[in-house]
Design brief:
heterotrimer; A alpha/beta (385); B mainly alpha (332); C mainly alpha (293); A: 385 residues; alpha/beta; 15 helices; 18% strand; disordered N terminus; B: 332 residues; 73% helix; globular; disordered C terminus
Chain lengths: 385, 332, 293
Amino acid sequence: MVSPVHVSRRSLIQALALAPLAAPAIIGRAHAADPIRIGISGPMTGQFAQNGQWMKNGVAIAVKQVNDKGGIKGRMIDVRIADDLGPNPTAAANAVTKLATQDEVVALVGPHYTPGILPNVPLLGKYKIPALTGATGPVVTQQGSPWVFRVRLNDAIGADLLVKYVTEDLQWKKIGLGYVNTAFGQSGIAVVKASLAKRNVEPVLVQAHTDATKDYTSQILAFQQAGVDGIIVWTDDQPAGLIAKQSKTLGVKFGIAGNTAFSQPIFLGLAGEGADGCMAIGEFVKDNPDQRVQAWKKLYAAAYPGDEPELYATVYHDAARLIIAAMERADAISGEAIQKTLTEIRDFQGIVTRYGWTDNGDMTHSGIITRVAGGKPEIVKVITS
Amino acid sequence: MSADANALTMRALAVLVIATAILCGLLLPRFLSVYYLQVADVTLINILLVLGLNFILGFGGQMSLAQCAFFGIGAYTFTLLQAAGMPVPVAAVGAIALSAAVGMALGWPTLRLKGHYLALCTLAFALIVERLLVNWEGLTNGANGITAIPGIGLAGENDKMLWVLLAIVAIAYLLQVWIANGPLGLRIRALRDDPLAAQAVGVDISRLKIMLFVISAAYGGLAGICYVLLRGYISPDVFSWQSTFSYLAMAVVGGLGSPLGAALGAILYTFVPELLRFMQEYYFAVFGVMVILVITFFPAGLSGMVISVVRSLRRREKSFARSDVTHHERAA
Amino acid sequence: MLQTFIQIVLVGLAVGAAYALVALGYTLIWNAVSLVNFAQGDLVMLGAFVSVGWLANRLGMPLWLNLVTMLVILGIFGAALAWGIYHPLRNAPQLSAIVATLGLSMALQNIAVIIWGPQPLNFAGALGTTSVHLFGSTIYAQYLVILAALAAMMAIQHVLFQHTGLGRAMRATAQDAEAARLMGIPTARIIAFIFAYATMLAALAGWLIAPLSYVSSDMGVNLSLRAFAATILGGFGSIPGALVGGLAFGVIESAGSFYISSEYIDVIAFGVLIAVLMFRPQGIFGELELERP
């Protein structure tokens, strides 16, 4: 039970009828109690709930670890969760405001989506709470807020690395572009375009889709007709899987490269054999032989039997560990102190990468390029910018 | 009902509404936390949207699903005009005017459409507007939306925005009652209850329907401006076509054609999910079931229930003159 | 060029067939009880989840038993909807009932996530990713199955409605429930049957399209919208209209995306829809006096 309102005991109808009248019961502000509260703002219901589930899992492991060791300066950590419905500015602003003012959290993990973090940028400054987000759009850190920390690879860097790889190492000449028509896909493909322009390459064809697109036949045929050597796609896991699967069915010859979706489990499951040969720029694959990743896999499987960690659980686990590390070093447990300490972090060894703060709030600076072979993404290149 | 009686009710109602608004303005910040104040602000914006929808859906009996589009057009126009250097009042008037003009442009060609055909046409329009907001990156900045909109400098100031929104909603509420009680209201009721008979006695139905569309759209545009003032950030996600169904549900759950219903429906639909957050991932499932239950128990909407309670209380004292504005058993 | 054109049209027809199946459900319920069931798409999702999440993944049922069991479960669920949603609201204003189906839609989508989890489920179906070559173009065999299923359902429906006592009772109930009741037709049971049948149609659509992509809680949302568009395009209440509207909408989307713009495909498809309604306000097969109070 997270809310201070105890509606649960009343019947639904009563709760409903009394809801507006119950307002005075809402007043109660949380007492400055013993545990330290940190918040998660993520999609917990609806179509994006999977990401929220992963956020929760990753954070929970980090918090349990520190609580088992006796907490921070004797204080336990308590995680408060608020549903922000993903890319929903109104719900995200409500979720963050609730966490900040009602639950009085000292730091935030999330919101995960660009339209979720953007409306909250001014609010984070107002409530003086740092937020560690995995939203990759360049626009997120361009806001110049000292309260926003990005724990994933900025698309502006990632896209450039990928374009460099396909044009120089793979020698693609005619390139098609595909993207999901959301904040994520639009800003991702914009940096791909800019990066291509830098190398004097003009994409021969650009195609857009939505998360609801289930048949890519017409798009794939259009790429084929344009005679592309390969396509660069910036999209979510599900469309990535369908594009790869349907390209395989249609027997196309061009190569497929894209954002980290093209190495993630949902993609692999949907694409099946079609996944083979697909390339991605990302930060994390669970089959990385690196011993930190392997240890993390064991830890995760112990906490969630039968499950394996993927990118988001891992990134937000690192985010929670960053917050914990900042709290351990800070002279006080407050949003301001944690924010200040986070900016002093230069070389923090996480599972995904080594984190280090730079002026604009980006904390991750290296990426890996993977290529799927036999249904498993293999690392072809590790790049540090 | 004589004009005198109407004027009297109107004056009494005005006092009541303004008093309620002032009371809310004074009391809510004392009793509500910052977070619930923000929810209250969002609720007020939703009330505005549903009041607008009331004109075309409740009064006109026309099933329009385009309210989210006018919401978006108002918000984006206001933002872009302000970015072009126009002062806030000018940008606001421009935004409302454009929303109204688009309302007319939608209302006129769809005059021949009835029932579900109109519903789909307006829904298709809403979807097209949303796609344009996403795709027309040069103008709207695409799906990333527009950040740090100055507005009147009150973005995120939930307590101060409460006063602004209360004032706007009170005026919009009274305007709706005033229109419904005035000479236009008579024609509106004639249109809703029996379009053929209304036409026979000389009501220009086409003009009336378009007028309702225009007022409806203007309210939607005004709500868009309010959203910009409150949030300082807009993106196409705020105005998604799916959200239009929430406004429809608010209008119906509250009670169609009733300003009080608009307020009650918006309060229910905005506040209750926030109150149910403690149920974690179950809360929207529970809320969905709740909507079904409310509709089942109060098919005429919450306002119908409130009015019948009030009426049964008053009937004990004296016979009560029925108010047409806030009382409709039958929907569109 | 011609080969590509054939491919585009075939895919459009196949995608449109799924719209048509859902649209048929809308039409049936509308004809029977004058209710637009906005949760129709979510019944597609529910059918797919029951089939994949429970019967296939948990119980490992063989495919045909899976289909039959799923249809029985969803049929019972549909009859329960008639009893739980329609009956309490049968005398309420039409819009109230519509909003109740919106509430149902919200509840179903969220309950699906609670039961089956938020991760999309994969389903190979009978054919997996088998593809066939037709007129020189490549197409999933599953698409042909969907088209065949649509044709079969149309035939079954025709026989059921025109040549059986049950069908006559259904039509009588649809035309005038009160009169039908006075004639001794058990209208409550007939309406429950219509709901069950419409739900099974939606569920069948879910079972058929699941192997083509994946099963997720939101899969009904866009299907709902497009099936509703198909219903309107064809003419509300018309069974051939639902069929033609569904297929036409699928082809418009597929061809529009290839020949004009994938970015603006929704604008194109729904723009065409608005344009058609401007010239034919009752849809292709609709009758002008269709609207009921």
